[in-house]
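ok trying this again, last paste got cut off
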Amino acid sequence: MAVFSRIYIEKEALAYPLAQAVLTRLPQARRVLIDHYKDVFNRPHQDFRTQKGAQQLILALKRPPYLYPLSPLCETYGYERAYYTTPVLNCPYDCDFCFLQGVYPSAHLVIFVNEGDFFGAARNETGPFFLSVTYENDLMALEGLAPWTSRWLDFAKEMPHMEMEIRTRSANAGVLRDREPLPNAVLAWSLSPQTAAARYEKRAPAPADRIEAARRALAAGWRVRLCIEPIVRIPRWEEAYRDLIVSVFDTLPPEKVDSAVADVFRMGRQGFDSIFKSRMDTDLFAFRPGSAGDSVTYPEYREMGHSVREMLLRYLPPGNVYGGIR
């Protein structure tokens, strides 16, 4: 469980059961009452990198809207209506390539506690739709602190027309214990070669541990998606990704894997330029950027993406492999 020395709590959020559940788990943290989370989260002159080293927690109420259309850059798996939602802002991990560092002024973790409002918004969708609940967070990594993953899985039972994706770098498959698998919930593990993970995915569990968590979920009957992204240009990258995919399917039966997606590292130009100026501690951004639409990426992104997707196609049928910069 993450360690926080201070918890900022919106006064209106204090009475919510989810807020009380979080506070019970952190009895030693200093509590500071605030009027609105943005008074802390959006303060001027914050330093994202410094705050990552001493991340604090904010408990707040989310105001409308609760669902957002997914970016055209995101995979929607064939759904015409595809959304994401933000029960949590930011992540306990510290990956160099995280786009949130170019989006948010603060690295502090925000947990929204008014779960009923999120579920109410999703209930308004009456036709088939796709919902990512982890676009700006890693809920499974935080389950020991705030049981948002469990709450979304409970909610998905009453929404058969919703396909929900929970993406994670966590090795925490314990959240699935004693749960019946759901046909409309997809558990998606983000995977990288060990050399890339050690270099760029600080605080995240080792890829081998994530693969084992995926194996346990698969054995229990859950739908499992493999996310080989972002593909980053490390030395001998092609060999590294081939070794990763071989190791994955040495552990996971290909015929049971729901799907896979592979995409090359890319970022909106504004976010890339902002992060580039502040990240002297990583070589991830030290390349001559190419362009793909409104994104910044490697000049050879097509070759890299095609190569990794071809590796996946050795194990999975074409209709189950997604990705490609559009």
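PB: full thing came through this time. The mean pLDDT is 94.
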